[in-house]
Design a protein that fits this description.
4-stranded mixed sheet, 4 strands, single chain, alpha+beta, 19% strand, globular
Length: 132
């Protein structure tokens, strides 16, 4: 079993506590194809260990989930032109950051790697809240 350093756990707790709906607009040139216009955009960076963990631990489980059929997930490199085309109200300060979009507008985000269990709890809460 791999031990997780205390500062990593503290960072994960901070990230989970800091998550909240965003009021900012996000302008994406490609239209979303998800349920009622929902889409997940994952902002990532090359050589990012937490991005690698996200791809290893979260992406396969998400792609197998029923939610993935209705809410597609796209990946955008923070260093590429597609990232600079995003209109964010607040900056991306950690990668990976998962942006939750509805009709190309940001309704929430998950900054940093939070692990699969927390990811699914937060995504479900954000999407369910957006349906209300």
């Amino acid at each position: 079993m791999t031990r997780v350093p205390g500062f990593v756990l503290a960072l994960c707790c901070f990230v989970v506590a800091a998550i909240g709906p965003s009021r900012g607009a996000l302008d994406i040139s490609q239209p979303s194809a998800g349920r009622a216009g929902f889409e997940l955009i994952v902002i990532e960076a090359p050589d990012c260990i937490y991005c690698h963990l996200f791809h290893r631990d979260v992406v396969p489980a998400y792609q197998r989930s029923p939610r993935a059929k209705n809410v597609p997930m796209r990946f955008v490199d923070v260093n590429e032109e597609a990232f600079s085309a995003l209109s964010l109200q607040r900056p991306i300060d950690s990668v990976p950051t998962v942006l939750v979009l509805r009709d190309r507008r940001e309704i929430g985000r998950i900054p940093g790697y939070v692990g699969p269990m927390n990811f699914f709890q937060i995504i479900n809460r954000l999407l369910d809240t957006a349906d209300e």
